[in-house]
Design goal:
Blueprint (H helix, E strand, L loop, with lengths): L2 E3 L5 E3 L3 E2 L5 H14 L3 E3 L7 H8 L5 E6 L7 H12 L4 E6 L9 H13 L3 E7 L3 H11 L5 E5 L7 H10 L2 E5 L12 H10 L3 H11 L3 E2 L7
Parallel strand pairs: 3-4, 4-5, 5-6, 6-7, 7-8, 8-9, 9-10
Antiparallel strand pairs: 1-2
Helix pairs in contact: 1-2, 2-3, 4-5, 7-8
């Protein structure tokens, strides 16, 4: 498994298992199969409602675990993380992300300050954000001097986010792709991608994931049948 170096000196597996929309009752088996297959990164979030099942499947694994702070907990971060840790059955997560900036609430700087404190306390080994624009990143960096290790954003060949990726690279932030295969299955029916897949004897999903990896992106496809 290729590892990416984070700006805090830790390492992140480049390819991970996403668990969005996998029910809590089913996700433990999916996570176990994924780990057996070779995944070493599992991604969940408080809002997914499956942290308990993810934790059950992850139990005892030598792997990287990510979860995320939901939008209504920006002013209650420590309690939110404690709830996630209890559900996951771990003392700390490898990566804790602010799921969305929610600028209308204007609490994401406060939330970022709380994540820094929780990292320093050892409850989250690395910290980052998700769905932050450069203007949001500038604000939290200017306020704290701490650059997020990761920004997880929607990214795929039809939505390449070149400006965001350039910003991340300049700041030393790892770009992590969510919805890497697009939404609704249309991307995988693209004639150019189908032609490449046929030429190399691979699936269209494998071709798209290879595109992400070749660009140095971390990628977390959902794999309910891992």
């Amino acid at each position: 498994m290729t590892m990416l170096t984070l700006n805090d000196g830790r390492s992140l597996p480049q390819l991970g298992l996403g668990t969005y929309q996998i029910p809590d009752s089913q996700v433990a088996a999916v996570v176990r199969r994924g780990l057996d297959t070779g995944y070493r990164l599992v991604d969940t979030a408080a809002i997914y409602g499956n942290e308990r099942g993810v934790g059950e499947g992850f139990q005892g694994a030598d792997a990287f675990l990510t979860t995320k702070l939901w939008n209504d907990r920006h002013r209650d971060v420590e309690a939110a993380l404690d709830e996630s840790l209890a559900l996951l059955g771990v003392e700390a997560v490898d990566l804790y992300l602010i799921h969305w900036p929610v600028p209308a609430e204007d609490a994401y700087v406060e939330a970022w300050q709380s994540l820094i404190a929780l990292r320093d306390a050892g409850k989250a080994k690395s910290i980052g954000v998700s769905n932050f624009l450069p203007e949001h990143l500038d604000r939290i960096i200017d306020a704290t001097g701490v650059v997020p290790a990761v920004n997880q954003i929607e990214l795929h060949p039809r939505f390449q986010q070149r400006e965001a990726r350039a910003y991340h690279q300049a700041k030393g932030i790892v770009t992590q792709s969510w919805s890497p295969l697009g939404q609704g299955g249309e991307l995988l029916k693209t004639p150019e991608i189908m032609k490449i897949a046929e030429k190399h004897g691979r699936s269209t999903a494998q071709v798209v994931l290879a595109w992400h990896l070749a660009h140095g992106l971390s990628v977390i496809p959902k794999a309910a049948d891992a």
